[in-house]
Amino acid sequence: MTVIQGENLTKSYGKTLALDNLTFQIEENKLTGLIGRNGAGKTTLLKLIAGYLKPSRGEINVFSHNPFDSLQVSANIIFIDNHMAFPTAFSLDDILTEVAHYYQNWNAKLAHGLFDYFSFNPKQRHGSLSKGNQSTFNMIIGLAARCPLTIFDEPTSGMDSAVRKDFYRALLKDYLEYPRTIILSSHLLSEVEDILEDILLLRDGTKCLHQSVLELKEYALGLKGPKQTVLERLKGQEILHTEEFAQGSLYAVIKNQGLTSQQFLKHEDLELLPVSLEDLCIYLTGNAKGGIDHVFKQ
Amino acid sequence: MSLNNNLLSIASRQYVYKLKANSSGVYSLIFIQVLALLFSLSGIQSMSSVSETLRVNVKYFSADIIISFTFIWIFFMSLRLTSINSKTMDFTLVTNRLSSHLSNIGLLLTTIIFGSISSSLMGFVLKIIMYFAFDRSQIGVNGFYPVFSDILLGIITTGLYMTLIASMGYLLGILIQIHVLFVVLYPAALFGLEKVNPQMLKLSFDFFASETSPLLFAIRIILSSLIVFSLSCLLSNRMEVRK
């Protein structure tokens, strides 16, 4: 079943175009990563899905409803980011008790288990938590709510690396135990690629690609060798990225179109390198001007 | 996917949540009313006449200040409920715009019940203080000793006025969300109206203040508040949140 469907989705703020004709769909019970550079439109897209914003053009459907101002959609979604607000009168303990009334799948055992594990003080106020702790607490709510559609918008901002690792593990374990549709937007693809199933990559408000992580890992090949040899060998291939090193050596990343590594191994001075997902996404969403090196060459 | 989420059940959940979250509002009400009581102790009006043989000094005491302070309090309470922060709190959890308004209005009506009863009772505190502070013979008896029906009428009237004021405050809050300039425009429009057409403001004042039949008065206030609240709902219906 398709949970989220976007058709020619466009959102502009005044003259700035945040999303540009985005068409995509997200299937039920998938853990999708929403990846993109700063300002690629990740948060805008998530807020459109949550029904906070209205699309300027195009259409979005969540659980076959228009999410804007829909109680039905809101009851089946939880949106976790670091702007969540709770009444100042509530202690953390109160929040866990009160929020539980809103979500029928709420898992109090999980909530309190995580709450104790991260050693929160039950009497503390949400507003007085540090940024990282706020993110951690919000994450607990997001996991325990067990909403059919759970959205995490940069959930790990401010968390230290130990808590981040715990979070990814908790997310994965709970997802396996209770499968649901989860969207996770993140900058740190290297950290989340192991738990994601699909990746939706945004570039300047448009869809760059939407594939499973397994496919994406096969998407590109990296070649390193003397500049001339590499360039000759790569004629006719789609080059995603090139980077020059000292002594006339060149590193190139090409799109893997049914190529096998055997074809390259004949050249003994060519080195075949794996391309990490994070690097690949940077190459795919980068601007064509040759990266940061270009600035310093002038 | 759960389907048993109707508007009223969500709104009532939100209402309970907000009631718990705003229970500290009672303290601000108590504070405001005690403050008003202190102001009332010096009398709201005094009149003295002196002749060669006689010196008469009349002082009026009334709970008017307490009630006006309660009016101001409810105005700001309703304004506060429309703030961005309170909207973000709503949209952190399950809500839509209408359920958020319904729970807000529910909360306001609850505070109005509190406010109108407590302000009427505060009037008694004032009377008790007067009773002990002055010699019995110095007190003009008219209306001093309470009649139950009068108390009830007083509570209901105060409550109805508070409802109207709350609806106005709520509308102002929504307008400010639409554009911050309404902070200035709202009072300016009222003053402007008074300058351009003084009759108009007087008429609308009379419409609410000079009605002698309690039933008609109640109907007028309830209908007007309903209209203003619905206007607020309509205006905010297409508004985006958590931008």
Primary descriptors:
heterodimer; A: 298 residues; Rossmann fold; Alpha-Beta Plaits; 2 domains; 12 helices; 34% helix; B: 243 residues; mainly alpha; two-stranded antiparallel ribbon; 9 helices; 72% helix
Textual characterization of the structure:
- The complex is a heterodimer of chains A (298) and B (243).
- Chain A is an alpha/beta fold.
- Chain A folds into 2 domains: 2-216, P-loop containing nucleotide triphosphate hydrolases (Rossmann fold, 3-Layer(aba) Sandwich); 219-297, Alpha-Beta Plaits (2-Layer Sandwich), CATH 3.30.70.
- Chain A has helices at residues 42-50, 71-75, 92-100, 108-117, 131-145, 161-177, 189-192, 213-217, 227-233, 262-265, 277-285, 291-297, and strands at residues 2-13, 16-27, 31-36, 57-62, 77-80, 149-153, 181-186, 198-203, 206-212, 220-226, 239-244, 249-255, 271-273.
- Chain A has a 6-stranded mixed beta sheet with strand order 5-6-7-3-8-9, sandwiched between helices. Chain A has a 4-stranded antiparallel beta sheet with strand order 11-12-10-13.
- The relative contact order of chain A is 0.13.
- Chain B is globular and about 75 Å long.
- Chain B has one domain (7-48, 56-178, 211-236).
- Chain B starts with 6 loop residues before the first helix and ends in a 7-residue tail after the last helix.
- In chain B, strand 1 (45-50) and strand 2 form a beta hairpin.
- By secondary structure, chain B is mostly helical.
- Chains A and B meet through helix 2 and helix 3 of A and helix 1, helix 4 and helix 5 of B.
